[in-house]
Amino acid sequence: MTATHISSRVSDRVMLAHGGGGELTSELIEAHFLPRINNPALAPLADGAIVPIGSDQSVVFTTDSYVVTPLEFPGGDIGRLAVCGTVNDLAVMGAEPLGLSLGVIMEEGLSLDVLDRVVASIARAAREARVPIVTGDTKVIERRGNEGLFLNTAGIGRLRPGLRLGTERVESGDVILFSGRIADHGLTIMSVRAGIAFDSDLRSDAAPLADLISALSASGADVKFMRDPTRGGVAGVLADMCLRSGYSIEINEAAIPISPTARHAAEMLGLDPLTVANEGKLVCVVRREDAAKAIKAMQDHPLGREAAIVGRVTDAEPPLVELRTRAGGRRIVQRPYGEELPRIC
Amino acid sequence: MTPRLQDIAEGLGDSAVRLGRTVRFMEVCGTHTVSFYRNGLRALVPDNIRLISGPGCPVCVTAQRHIDAAIELARGPRVLIATYGDMLRVPGRSGSLESSRADGADIRVVTSALTAVDIAAECPERTVVFLAVGFETTAPATAAAVITAERRGLENFAVLMCHKRVVPAMRALLDAGETRLDGFLCPGHVSTIIGAEAYRPIVEVYCKPCVVAGFEPAQMLEGLARLVRQASREEARLENVYQAVVSDAGNAVAQRLMCQVFVKADAPWRALGEISASGLELAPAYRRFDAIERFGIALGEDDDNPACRCGEVIQGLVEPGECPLFANGCTPLSPVGPCMVSSEGTCAAWYKYNGQSAGRAAVRIGGGS
Questions:
Q1: In this complex, which of B5, B352, B363 lies closest to A327 when CB atoms are compared?
Q2: How large is the ipTM?
Q3: Is the pTM of this model over 0.90?
Q4: Which CATH superfamily is B1-310 part of?
Q5: How far is CA B138 from CA B131, B167, B193, B204, in A?
């Protein structure tokens, strides 16, 4: 490759795709943040950091920012997302949420009606998640032609005793569970953005998962690893798990819960539902002998009624995520590389 | 697997065994390419049936000079570019639309040409240039957008014409004689517009079997089974297994729109060169909406990376893994050739789904960078 061809492609500015949650996001973090900011709590780059606060106690600390367009969409809004996203990041780390912070950046011109609705939604979601908003901050910036509202939430939680979570515990024979239908959130947002009105029940699944996870851990099932498959979808979580654990994962497309509407919407937009974001779903790895117990605990909870065993961990070499397709074929599932772009035709 | 799909797959397997030789069919549609990989159909298709991806991804065949023109337009004052999303990352001579946007250009992603017209109405102080890319699937929407802009008196709307026609490209491939093909799996979407009969010359003049098929696994396998049957009988017929959607004559309304607004023209295809009557340009009555003319842009020469083999990939001459840049400097993150950019590009599909692997069998081809 000649130098001109290299320089023609590389931009010295941040591009939107850097925020897509795929390989480009990882590159940005690895090249521009980690060399200057790193320590043992940050290094695993998990959904939150485990910070020891004594010899036998730890807290989990996490933060996330929300810049979604549009601010309100079927099934939720930016406020509900901001509460659920942070609660879920704490919950999948094995923590019981104790309190959230709320940072609000508003553009001049934001409608106060919209603000009131979003704040009411934040309050509702926090009640649902049984976690208080304990501190906050507001700022107003000049109008910049955006939707007018950005949120940041940070959360702190107490690590539940007894739960031992980590990809190092994953081993061949374990089963993979999804707590319900995938891809609803991302497809809702994308179809609203694309102006495609699906005459349908497609709604964001945004929901706080802490209670579902409590029920799961109370069932006594040996849960080895959990993630909420947000940006990057279940494909991102499974590929990451495969990479970190060194084990292969085999999943069965026919067993994956997905609504017909979501499947068709994904087809129309040219997207793979496995790579589409969820905001109220759980992917977990459970010891095979405990699969039935875990499924029952999830299905008994309103947020896990459609929970299903979708696959298993194997020791096939090399470590890969492989999908047995509904058509009877097989293919590899990889981490999406960046923002997925709807196709032309 | 449904019983019907199983029957089709078994039938395909049996006829492939009876055929006793290797045959090469080209799918001329990016959506077929992706469906084939995404559904893991490689595992269901016998080894002696080779499916070659053709020049069926509109992003991949857009000439670099048009990308360069779009970038030049985007950098101009008071210009807003409206484009389908998958054009953003296509590399031009200097940067891409995505990097131009990071540099401050106003580039909006739209999913319909009519949205671009609406933006023109909302932003009267800017000229909105719509990148008119795609085959006959999207061309009627561009025609409708131009007519709408005229009717609404929106003189600040313009189009950068890059539309392509499918059948001339198929003929050019066959005329070049380098691609050894035993038939075509013809696209579903495009055929809804142009009609199945559009492929008649391929069957009659070039004696190549053509089967129009949809995108579901059963449709694709049924299409392949028909092609194998024709090959074994040494026939060349036009068949349509997608009759629920594709008629013989196509969509008359869409065809009328295209006839009203466009005329056929020679067009440059990325890596394939100029193909006679393979493109569309604005008819004289609508020429004032042409962005190239309005802004006096001089279309430059293409400066494709000489090591990139996209041109051969979309002619079915080599597979992506045979390109020295594949997964080695050319990845979806930083594509060199356009086939790596669009999710429907052959190289991107290979990269994402690890080549023509039946699961893990051929996994090392794509590698993962």
A1: B5
A2: 0.75
A3: no
A4: HypD, alpha/beta domain 2 (3.40.50.11740)
A5: 11, 15, 10, 27
